Amino acid sequence: MRRAYKFLLRPTTRQAASLAACLDDHRSLYNSALEERREAWRRSRVTIRYGDQSAQLRDIRRADPDHARWSFSSQQATLRRLDKAFTAFFRRIKAGQTPGYPRFKGPGWFDTVEWPKDRDGCRWNPAPGSDRVRVYLQGIGHVRVHAHRQVEGTVKTISVKRQGRRWHVILSCDEVSAQPLAATGRVVGVDMGVVSFLTTSDGVHVANPRHLAASRARLTDAQRALARHRPGSIRRRKTRERVAALHGRIGRQRLDHAHKIARWLVGHHDLIAHEDLCITNMTGSTHGTVNAPATNVAQKSGLNRSILDAGWGVFLRVLAAKAESAGRLVIAVNPANTSRTCPQCGHCARENRLTQAEFACVACGHTGHADVVGASNILRAGLALQAARAA
Question: Among 113, 159, 133, 144, which Cα is nearest to 12's?
Fold first, then answer.
């Protein structure tokens, strides 16, 4: 199986400046290639492809020594990144979706450089057996890595990503062996929520940590200070970094919580059924249009914020990855009416759910916690899907 490892880099001051310069030069290359494609089509209706632009790299490096100090392969990867953006643009046009023409990248919108092959302008762990793990990057040098776990498999690609003031290295590895866990004989259904982060069919409620809400006061103060500063000033830059640091901390807290809960579910259950949630639709715009203005805008905005703060999408991605490595089965089921259907008689009605937490079937009188009822119905649907696939 394929797995990605993300480690914190600890560059020196000079190496951090070189990393920033590398990122900026690759961003300039991306924008120049995009400009060439736009102008060629606008002026002559000529389509320029990746192969045409890749062939120009040698001349560019020969004419500009600043670009020549970086890896040729990493610059090709940047051009492929633009080519993928155009491929996706034309695919969306054919599918009738919103096209989303590729945009020029500003300093804050280009944060990753990829080296597509280990030992081609980059090298992971050049000193095997040493306690001081480093990664070599052409034009930057040997950068110290905070490798908090062992890397398995064969390193295929190496990427460097900037997040606020931090730098990370991301290793994409092939041939990573799975680590299946012993069978437990237990299955579980999971109902995602806002009041409780999740509720299982066994009646376990996992509290919602609400990381954004806990840091909202500090974040609000920082954002207000940012709005007061003059654009382009040093104070504005420092305050912007402060806002980014707060958002980064919240994101790391949310990811840590997702890993812990997913690990607990995978470690104790052979099959995990959860709702197939479309979070994008659930957190859509609340303002409506001029002709048809929306109602309850404040309430819907608060609900959207709570859904995004819970981090369902992050959790479900982490759960799927851990389940694949452990040999567990994860099934996504249609969430429609799972909290309105009685698990005893199967009667489905809106009146069954009295409040957010109370469930009382109007047909048979069965009562219970609404989230536990929903999780039970999700488990039943997941087992039915498993049986249908096995048939």
Answer: 144
Q: Which residues of 174-205 are buried (b: 16+ CB within 10 A; e: fewer)?
A: eebeeeebeeeeebbbbbbbbebbbbbbeeeb
Count of residues in the chain: 391
The residue type at 149 = R
CA-CA distance, 246 to 164, in Å (whole number)?
10
* Cβ-based neighbours of 233, under 8 Å, separated by 6 or more: none
| pLDDT tens string 191-217 | 999 999 999 999 999 999 999 999 999
The owner of tokens 């009416």 is: 337
User: To 10 degrees, the CA torsion angle through 243, 249, 254, 255?
Assistant: 120
Per-residue CA distances from 293 to 24, 288, 298 (Å):
43, 5, 13
| Distance, CA of 313 to CA of 253 (rounded, Å) | 14
Contacts for 24 with CB less than 8 Å, ≥ 6 apart: 107
> Which amino acid belongs to residue 7?
F
Instruction: Give the integer Cα–Cα distance in Å for 31 and 382.
Output: 47
Bridge partner residues of 163 (DSSP): 166
What is the Cα–Cα distance from 9 to 53, expressed in whole angstroms? 32
Give the Cβ contact number of residue 355 at 10 Å: 8
The helix (run of H) or strand (run of E) holding residue 272 is: strand 271-275
- Tens-digit pLDDT profile for residues 176-195: 888 889 999 999 999 999 99
Alpha-carbon distances, residue 227 vs 214, 219, 224, 314, 378 (angstroms): 22, 12, 5, 30, 46
> Does the model's pTM come out above 0.70?
yes
Place of tokens 């092959």: 117
